[in-house]
Design brief:
Oligomer: single chain
Distance between the termini: 22 Å
Helix content: over 70%
Number of strands: 0
Order of helices and strands: HHHHHHHHHH
Largest sheet: none
Number of domains: 1
């Protein structure tokens, strides 16, 4: 396949993907968001502070670990098509790992079900670091790790936050100088609200393993699609500026 033909195909896919990411949520999703917002309003501020700090520390520890174990030898002279295909292969591997982890913790009842949160988070973060290497970016750079967190937020957030985050990713070369750190309060709340409902079902006896495997498969799929398209946007925008 010629690079020019593939680029046109990718541009069309990006057009539909951006539309999907910015379209208005369905009635059920909006109703669920309203309920979650009300529940969060009833939760003591101290709890939000503890959760924010816990997830911030968890994510930062995972970032360090993933960065250490990710090969820094970046693939050179690869076409966008080759990079996309390589990412699809890696996604397949990580998705299988996530499915096994979800089934295992889901079958183990409440205690193992609770362990699913940090385990799945580490799988997702490791995948993001591998993706950065596939597309030729060095995660030793702080700004690249910050970009990964914005991909994560884009994949697992509400309608309004998705729109804001997509805008940041689309204009990353300008936006990165304006962002000193993540808004960890928003980060943890968006992520928790996105996965809370399905993960609650994973704790139920009898169906936990099936729910856990199914949920993790779909969550990795969502992250994989978001990651690929985020890097596609970035690379194509870079090509436009050079031409």
């Amino acid at each position: 396949m010629e690079d020019e033909d593939y680029t046109k195909e990718v541009e069309q896919e990006l057009y539909f993907w951006k539309h999907k990411m910015t379209r208005r949520s369905g009635r059920i999703s909006r109703a669920a968001k309203t309920v979650q917002t009300k529940i969060n309003g009833l939760i003591p501020e101290k709890f939000h502070q503890v959760m924010t700090e816990s997830i911030r520390n968890m994510v930062k520890a995972t970032l360090v670990g993933s960065n250490i174990t990710t090969k820094k030898r970046l693939p050179l002279e690869l076409s966008l098509y080759e990079r996309d295909e390589l990412l699809k292969e890696k996604l397949s591997t990580f998705r299988k790992t996530a499915v096994m982890e979800g089934a295992g913790t889901g079958a183990g009842g409440i205690l193992l079900g609770l362990a699913d949160f940090p385990l799945l988070l580490s799988i997702k973060m490791k995948f993001l670091f591998e993706a950065a290497a596939v597309y030729g970016f060095d995660t030793d750079d702080y700004e690249e790790r910050l970009f990964l967190l914005h991909i994560f937020l884009l994949a697992f957030s509400s309608e309004d936050k998705r729109k804001d985050t997509l805008c940041i990713i689309e204009n990353w070369e300008e936006q990165k100088y304006l962002i000193a750190d993540m808004n960890w309060r928003d980060f943890q709340q968006e992520y928790r609200e996105y996965i809370d409902l399905v993960k609650m079902f994973q704790l139920l006896p009898g169906i936990g393993a099936v729910v856990g495997a199914f949920a993790n498969y779909n969550l990795l799929d969502q992250l994989g699609e978001t990651t690929m398209n985020s890097y596609r946007l970035r690379l194509l925008h870079s090509d436009e500026k050079r031409s």
